[in-house]
Design a protein that fits this description.
Length: 142
């Protein structure tokens, strides 16, 4: 039962990632403005959603005892820590991976590497998509 709920949470997190990317690509331009507060807030919300969704995926895999992250030379699921510390660790790793390439203090292993690659790729493409859609929509309105 618990495993089913964890898998369901990971599926919902994955759907949230897709929904956030779609909402970023929508035609939402305020007439006469190149950048709007709305678009910046939307970008912040999309980043926040991505960070938490990927953190849920990492945490779900850790709970299922699938090794995905390593801190130093020890698998993070083997380090004795309380639930809040574990959540903080996966949120930190997710944010660092999405917003940069990472610092190396926590590294992905196994399937976590593929998830981190996907997360880093999305993290690099989101600003480009934001600016391209903003410029294209501005030129279409002129």
């Amino acid at each position: 039962m618990i495993i089913g709920l964890i898998i369901l949470a990971m599926i919902i997190a994955t759907l949230g990632i897709g929904k956030s990317l779609v909402s970023l690509m929508k035609r939402t331009r305020i007439p006469g403005s190149l950048l709007s507060v709305y678009k910046l807030v939307l970008l912040f919300i999309v980043y926040f959603t991505m960070i938490t969704a990927f953190a849920c995926i990492y945490l779900g895999l850790i709970i299922l005892e699938i090794p995905v992250l390593r801190e130093g030379s020890i698998d993070i699921s083997l380090i004795p820590m309380d639930a809040l510390t574990r959540v903080q660790s996966v949120l930190y790793f997710s944010a660092v991976t999405l917003l940069s390439v990472g610092y190396g203090d926590i590294t992905p292993i196994g399937v976590g590497r593929w998830i981190a690659i996907l997360e880093a790729l999305i993290g690099y493409l989101m600003p480009a998509a934001f600016f391209v859609t903003t410029i294209v929509h501005y030129k279409e309105g002129s």
